[in-house]
Amino acid sequence: MSYQAYDTEGFILGSRELGEADMFLSVYTKDFGSVRLLAKGIRFEKSKLRGQVQLFTRAQVQFVIGRELWRLTDARLAHVFQMLEKDLFRFQAASAIARFCKEIVSGSERDPALWQLLEEVFAALDSAGIPASGIPRLLYMFQIKAFQVLGYLPETCPEIVRSLGLEPFENSRPPLTLSERRELDTFLSSVFTYAASPDTHASLVP
What we know:
Helices cover 38% and strands 24% of the residues. It contains 6 helices and 5 strands, in the order βββββαααααα. Helix 3 (112-125) runs antiparallel to helix 4 and helix 4 crosses helix 5 (159-166).
């Protein structure tokens, strides 16, 4: 039985080993939204897919949709974010963004605005122009912008939320004050409670 193959670009946001050589990949794709792909035999050294779908990279992926699983059939590494490989703090920030997508974004549905948001935030994380002290601000900005894109952000928001929602990622601004972070945590916690399951983390920022 033959299956139609689909081809798209995606951010590799997570992976889980399965059995002796297989792996499940969590991928946010440009054309299909959030998908979970089974990569058969990818952990074998001879696998052609090995090294093409590294965590927190962009890859061109091809897959088929079976009765129960979506199976990866081909992949090509498209872009490596070098700063994430060198800086543990930036890698942890990417992990927080991936966790947000797993817990808040559901369904295999194309969302150009969310795709563009991921493009922008990963580019900012990979930029030497954003110092380590600016990463918490960037994570708050991502949460606010993502909730806005997904339709969860209330019309009435604190001034700091409105300000960060309009601020471009590439801006290098002073770190947030402790009082600003507390206000953001309180507000975002209420949005998380509405948008996700009770066990979802209330904030991406440590």
